[in-house]
Automatic annotation (TrEMBL):
It comes from Araneus ventricosus (Orbweaver spider). One of its GO terms (molecular function) is Arp2/3 complex binding. The keyword Metal-binding does not apply. Residues 7-65 form the SH3 domain. The gene is Nckipsd. It comes from the Eukaryota. The keyword Transmembrane helix does not apply. This is NCK-interacting protein with SH3 domain. One of its GO terms (biological process) is endocytosis.
Length: 606
């Protein structure tokens, strides 16, 4: 048997029914061929990865080349499983065992002859133990791709996706070569603590733990850490090696490009496969305007699997997939969302969008500059009675605007006064219906959309609000959030340092007397209590303290403060303290002096 005959069979389609001696399988399942055991030219005798022996039709499979090392390991694994069936071994199984044993002996003999030839003139360490590396798992994709091959389109799959989806075998070979090299170099010394741990080893262990156990990446890292600690407790002499491994574990995200090539990620392969299937389905429906098959369950499964991987997998791996081809996956999902009318699929796509926004903040920019905000605005207005859908739509729209980035001009064609009137109206309505979650999301849309306006004179949010006669829930909620120092737009981890949306909206609102009039007098007094407390507690130079000074200046200038003078003494005390500090903040001093000059009737003694 020569190297060209070393291959596996890979299933092209599903086979779900047949004779009892015919193997049942899913697309992409792998089989070990048993040569010279079938007299039928249409059928091959194979062993699946569970150790079952049976017939497979040639028309359902294709050959996949593998390395000798992988082939030997699979033979050993299959023989172990086949012998485990004793004593009830069928005639076909006995023939398979006989054939595999013969092939194994031939391959080992050929391998040993090659090793002897390569070793001529080279010193050999007699104590070196040969290392047999198990190959990567040959499992079928988690999501059935049966429908993807039926989609008809005239376009080609993006080249990079096709290449990345098929590059797992070279990565496996690279990992084997790297590990073999490290072991051979490392075993030439008796002192194990002199062993230099390659930076890809522990990340690769973490990936393997996740792949085998299906726990999250973070839990996989924790499991590897526990194992390393247990090893050190049991074998203290490994302390130097342990330190390298633990450092490798803590720095597992900051690996170089060479290490990335060695580490094989099953999550990456699955994501690219799902992406390819969604691409097929999108183009199928795009060309026909209706799905050829009843594919809702299939597509739903793909989206759920994709979202779970984004949540549980190594963020470094998932970010690389997202960023591939200038965020091609994000653009695909946006296009698919736009053309997909089915509610269940749209909701699952909303889940995916929310997850990938957290993974990579650039995704937010991509979505902001796409048609998705328009689609979400339309969904919110047309399907407001659907609480589940409107909850996710409002949440995602607030996330898209939460960075304060200026949207493209076309956004104002649909996020306009009409839409904002709708949001303000529904915000007051949901307060009466106790639908707190949707109400919070509607408020978040208003606050987030307001973030990008630099001039209050060109702010359509404020212009719309001026046309409202009452906004009780809005004003009460703003005071509540300001007092609690909460910002509902701080949804993403990356946005924690962004401008406080509640503070900005309050400062903007208090630029206009008619908007201050929307607040009840008691609300204004509570606000002044908050301002005095914060000016007293905050340190000089803190941005929040400067913002509170801006807010109180607008309040003094545009409200009827002279009618009640609430907290006047407290404000005077705060102003004196700011002006008398040993190391005052220049901006704060300037703002306080402006207020004392503008309102001398209240602050002449400051």
């Amino acid at each position: 048997m020569n190297d060209t005959e070393i291959f596996l069979y890979s299933a092209l389609y599903d086979l779900s029914s047949g004779h009892k001696q015919v193997l049942l399988f899913k697309k992409d399942d792998k089989f070990l061929p048993v040569l010279n055991c079938s007299s039928n030219p249409n059928w091959a005798v194979c062993i699946d990865m569970k150790g079952n022996v049976g017939y497979v039709p040639y028309t359902y499979v294709e050959k996949k080349q593998v390395s000798v090392q992988e082939y030997l390991w699979l033979i050993d694994d299959s023989l172990e499983k086949l012998h485990g069936d004793s004593p009830s071994i069928s005639k076909l199984t006995r023939e398979a065992i006989k054939s595999l044993t013969s092939i194994r002996a031939h391959l080992l003999s050929s391998k040993n002859e090659k090793t002897e030839v390569d070793s001529v003139g080279t010193p050999v360490n007699d104590h070196m133990t040969p290392v047999v590396d198990p190959p990567s798992e040959f499992s079928s994709p988690v999501v059935n791709s049966a429908n993807s091959d039926k989609c008809i389109n005239d376009q080609a799959i993006p080249d990079a996706v096709e290449e990345k989806a098929n590059e797992t075998e070279p990565q496996e070979s690279e990992q084997k070569s790297a590990l073999q090299s490290v072991v051979e170099n490392g075993t030439q010394t008796d002192n194990v603590n002199n062993f230099n741990v390659p930076n890809w080893l522990v990340p690769s262990l973490v990936e393997n733990v996740r792949h085998k156990t299906h726990i999250s990446h973070e839990n996989s890292k924790a499991a590897v850490g526990i194992i390393l600690d247990t090893l050190l407790d049991a074998i203290p002499i490994l302390d130097t090696l342990w330190f390298q491994l633990k450092e490798n574990l803590h720095q597992s995200e900051a690996i170089d490009e060479v290490a990335k090539e060695v580490i094989r990620s099953e999550d990456q392969r699955k994501l690219l496969d799902i992406f390819k299937q969604l691409w097929y389905c999108k183009n199928d429906e795009q060309q026909r305007s209706w799905p050829v098959h009843e594919d809702e369950d299939h597509i739903s499964g793909l989206l759920v699997e994709m979202n779970n991987i984004f949540i549980d997998a190594n963020p470094r791996v998932t970010r690389e997939v997202i960023r591939c081809d200038e965020y091609e996956m994000v653009n695909l999902l946006v296009t698919y969302y736009q053309m997909e009318p089915r509610k269940t699929l749209r909701i699952k796509m909303l889940h995916v969008f929310l997850t990938i926004c957290e993974l990579d903040v650039v995704v937010v920019t991509q979505l902001l500059n796409s048609v998705l905000p328009m689609e979400l605005a339309r969904d919110i207005q047309d399907n407001f009675e659907d609480s589940e859908k409107v909850f996710h739509s409002t949440l995602l729209l607030s996330v898209i605007f939460s960075t304060g980035e200026k949207p493209p001009t076309g956004t104002y064609d649909f996020i306009n006064k009409k839409f904002l009137h709708f949001v303000f109206e529904k915000l007051e309505d949901v307060a009466k219906s106790d639908d707190e979650d949707v109400g919070q999301n509607l408020l978040s849309i208003i606050l987030a959309f307001n973030l990008h306006f630099e001039s209050v004179q060109e702010n359509i949010v404020l212009e719309t609000l001026k046309e409202k006669q009452s906004a009780q829930y809005l004003t009460e909620r703003l005071i509540f959030l300001l007092n609690r120092e909460e910002d509902p737009c701080k949804i993403l981890t990356e946005s924690k340092d962004a401008e406080n949306s509640v503070m900005k909206f309050m400062i903007d609102m208090f630029s206009f007397p008619e908007l201050i009039d929307l607040f009840y007098l008691n609300d204004i007094k509570v606000l002044l209590d908050i301002i005095v407390r914060q000016l007293t507690d905050l340190l000089p130079g803190e941005k929040k303290r400067y913002d509170y000074l801006r807010l109180v200046k607008n309040l003094l200038k545009n409200s009827n403060y002279g009618e009640h003078l609430h907290q006047l003494e407290g404000l005077q005390k705060c102003f004196r303290f700011i002006l008398s500090q040993e190391f005052p903040d220049e901006n704060e001093v300037t703002l306080v002096l402006e207020m004392t000059y503008e309102f001398p009737q209240w602050f002449e003694n400051v």
